[in-house]
Amino acid sequence: MQYYLEIRNLKINYKTYEGSRPVLDIDELLIERGKTYGLVGESGSGKTVLALAIQRLLSMPPGEIESGQILLDGSDVLKKSDREMEQIRGAKMSMIFQDPMSALNPVFTVGMQMRKIVMEKRKLKKKEAEAAVLDMIRTVKLPDPEKIIHKYPHELSGGQRQRIIIGMALLCGAEFIIADEPTRNLDVTIQAGILKLIHELQKKFNVTVLYISNNLGLVSAICDDVAILRNGVIIERGSAREIMKDPKHHYTKVLIESVTPSRGKETSKEPPAEEALKAEDILTVDKLVKYFPIKNEFRSKKGVFVKAVDDVSFSIRKGEILGIVGESGCGKSTLVNTILFLHPPTSGKVMFDGRDIFGLGGGALRSARKDVQIVFQDPFWSLNPRWLVKDIIGEPLVVHKKLSSIEYVETVQSLMDMVGLDPADVYKYPHEFSGGERQRIAIARALSVSPKLVVLDEPTSAIDVISQKQVLNLLEDLKHRLQLTYIIISHDLGVVNYMADKIIVMYLGKIVEFGSSEAIFHQPKHPYTVALFNAIPSLKTQSVEDLAQIKGEVPSAIEPPAGCRFNPRCEQCMEICRSVEPEAKLVDDRLVACHLF
Amino acid sequence: MRKYIIKRIFLSMIVLFMVVLITFVITRAIPGDPAVKWAGPRASVEQIEAARLELGLDKPYVIQFFNYAGNLLQGDLGYSYITHRPVADELLETIPATMELIILSTVISIIVGVALGLYSAKYKDKLLDHAVRFFAIGSVSLPSFWLALALQLIFYGVLGILPLGGRVSTEISIFYQIPDITGLLLLDCILTGNWVVFKDALWHIILPVVTLSTNVGVVARMTRSALLEILNEDYITAEKSYGIHERYILWVYALKNSLGPTATVVTLTIGYTIVNTFLVESIFSWPGIGKYVSNAVMSFDYPAIIGVTIFSAVVYLILNLIADIIISLDPRVRI
Amino acid sequence: MDGIIRQIIFAAKPRLKEARMSLYLLNRNSLTRASLIIMIGLLILAVVAPFVIPYPLDIMVDTDPANSLQPPSSEHFFGTDELGRDLFSRILYGVRISITTAIVAVGFAVLIGSVLGAIAGTIGGWVDEVIMRICDAFLSFPPLLLAIATSAMLGPSLENAQLSIIISWWPWYTRLLRGQAISVKEKPFVKAAEAIGTKKIRIMFRHIVPNCISPIIIQASMDMGSVILTIASLSFLGLGAQPPIPEWGLMVATGKSYFMNAWWYGIFPGLAIFIAVLTFNLLGDGLREILDPKTRKN
């Protein structure tokens, strides 16, 4: 019994109305006792199916196990009865879930749910169980355990909930833990803390961990051994170091590339000086403020606002690519909605191509929309599922131009050709295309009326890694051909670094750093930027220790901290930071809003 | 929490106002002249005019509405065209009989329905599940009046084991004292220890209650779907992965999550049952609201019809309010 | 011209595939399959009734008092009523009456309810509040009660029963469509259309509404059964069809008076109600199993 978990020849199918579809076909998966094993795969690769199958929690009507063995500590899990499985689950193995909100029962207090586990699995009485629960809450580094046990899941923050989930997995007394993308739904800066916690507790409780993720960089930082899962098949496996240094499979190489933030752009690095001076600003945002009033059933609460965007100023030149980086809640979506003229600002100006956008009347505003288009993150819901591709791509044409039906179809077809789709597919529905292809349709739609500025909101987050590369290259190509200007929002620093000339780093509605992407990536100045870049695992990260963690949580945008908004969480916070808002100063080729400079 | 209740009550008041408004509009939509109906078939012109004044029909609509609403607040539901007695009084007399039916059939529907729903959710797609599904859809498709007739035919006409109608048989009512404390006959019999009458009343109540309990199927289906939705949630999988007993997960965890939908189902059931009594009571000669209404419809006694309508609507509104409050017990709703 | 035909074909292909898939799924459950067949049978019957029933004149015109209240026989499969009319013919004709009345009632309720719901959901704000409060008021009556009250006031007739059903049923569709509209409104493709500059009305009718139709279809097909039952119930109370219309509920009501002597008079029309309603309910339930994302087995 050298291996704690041995999976051999596991074949799992899904029964659909169209017949049986193979979902997993694993020849061999071996995990040593006490080690951390990483399983990397994209959405749809079958990793969650595997996690559930190991615990025999896979719903069997659609799922069926055709053959195979899952040996847990020597005995085959697939041959056990339901009663035996109930004993094994919790006592020998347990799971950490991806979405902490949905993994906790919303109508029971957190304390009650934890207590039940202890009483059930360790057969303790209520008093002792309660003590064990309080102890575990402390172990997962949450303050005020006595208060927390009385809280309901929705009263805790995402990071707190995830710590509770980790605690619950450990409370069972399991020696094997399956962690299914435990940090997927958390902010990057919280992620580091959770990863460190898992790492620490693994050593402390001496458990074997199967860590499932879609991020190779993350996995390589914390796991000893790694396997890459694609379409249900393991295409490469080995120690983490080996795989990162010397990948054999093409797919693995693409995965590695996608997490390397240090791809510079070799091509258009040196625009001729003349051109650079001639290029004028296409978009200028001046002291933009957008507050949302808080509604209270019947009326709006007086004077209480969500300060989504607070005094933001920047400009973009024609032909540039601006990247916007920030975690959820920093205001980037609101900023972009305002730039798209979707809602007028509370104050401040947006100048597009020399004109004050919100000063325009209805008709002029509508025709100005031709110039700014958007490509969304979700390739599925950004296209009307009941429309033909022809109508989807052609909608801007219908709104802004008058074309005969023949011209219309021809224009749409040439657009499809431009983005690399087959023009004959023009009469198909979106669901007949893959995720990457659907993004291309969205891009074609955006380009149909020859815009000047295209906003890309997380254009590659929801598609697989191979398509990501293709889409980014397509965007690059189109930019040159059509002389476009881009704004790219992404939480994926690799994408931003690859594409952007300038970047903005946002935090809680404010810009903390703005300047050339090369400069900022090379040497971030603002403490938040520094922490953000260091919290994201990459090739450089050797182990969990290297990941930076930012203490505390992101405060609410309704009552942001006084002075510099980052001050409560900043390691280098000074007196002045607490009371005075820092001005943006030019430091080393970029603007930084921080009192340190 | 208290704030929420107050808010809900306030909203209910608004809705109540609109209900009264709607019923008022309906009353004035009557073709024909209410004054004529009130005065009777052989009234003279002067009598009709007197009736018009008495009913306040000469005043403008807005004033009429306020009179109407004002009367309602005082519990005055108008006077029956036929008996010229206050509708409110007549309702009070007939409510207890119907209450008895509603309480019994609702309790049965809920207990049996929830249990069936739980088991069909647990044994999804097995024989029990399909049987319950068919039974549920079947029972909802049954016209209640037809079921009543069919049951009468079988159990009285053919088998002769159950009585045709009424609450007690005529012999019993002649020879024995019928207790009347709450109006709920069975309860009164138990309270007074009158077992002879009890047995007779029990025999009489069986068919009406069975006819009205067809909602069992709906309760089972709604419980099943609410439960299935819950059982599909991640937290149930999580609880299973911690190795907690499946029975506990089903009966404690999942059930508490389903309190909200269950309250809704109960309210809906009672609503359906109230209306079904209108169809069924006259078949069983059951002296309740249903019989009262179906007679009123036959004789075009509009105040009676409207009176019952308002009464039922108010009861339903209160039930919905209670259900809302139960739903708000879900900690997520605490705002 | 050629382009348009090609467009239609290309647009229809995936829709046909969807339809074929739905039929396949419907057919898998033998119960649902049976109800599908019966429903088609009923629809055909509704159309051809006047031509196939044995005693067509017995529907409205003829009476044969000598033959009154005869038990079922080879000449009169379901017996005769108190006026000597053949019950079998009248019941078959009743299919036509019940189904056409129900279709019209459901149709209008869906139309009115959906339009209001689309407006409420898309525009939001105080328009939404007002419409929803009105819906709440209508929905605060127990089901059927409002129909009874309205029918009673308007005067008993089949058309008035239809009208009262429309009046009591539309709020369900408003709520349904509004809920859908609100969730569809948030989807990126609607935001994209706004960003493109599409006018609000066009967004509402071409983007939002087509994506809201599916639950309406499910609800409407389930409601067909309930509406047929409601019509029968109203007629039973005396509020719907009036004699001599051969409506099932009315027949049961009349049959009630002769029940102990002529059981067939009350039983067979009621059986017809049961079968018709059961068929539509089973079908609607089957449709829901297929189309409802919550019960879908992925």
Q: Strand-residue fraction of chain B?
A: under 5%
Low-confidence stretches of chain B: none
Major sheet of chain B: none
Provide the spatial order of strands within the biggest beta sheet of chain A. 16-17-18-13-19-20-22-21
End-to-end Cα distance of chain A, whole Å, is: 60 Å
- SSE arrangement of chain B, N to C: HHHHHHHHHHHHHHHH
Radius of gyration of chain B: 24 Å
Helix content of chain B: over 70%
**Oligomeric form:** heterotrimer
* Biggest sheet record of chain A: 8 strands, mixed
Assign a percent range to the helix content of chain A. Answer: 25-40%
The CATH level-2 architecture of the largest domain in chain B is identified as: Orthogonal Bundle
The unreliable regions of chain A are: 263-275
* Count of discrete alpha- or pi-helical segments spanning 4 or more residues of chain B: 16
CATH topology of the largest domain in chain B: MetI-like fold
The end-to-end span of chain B amounts to 8 Å
Count of discrete alpha- or pi-helical segments spanning 4 or more residues of chain A:
20
**Class computed from helices, strands and strand pairing of chain B:** mainly alpha
Classification by helices and strands of chain A:
alpha/beta
Of all chain pairs, the largest interface belongs to:
B-C, 54 and 49 residues
Overall spatial form of chain B: globular
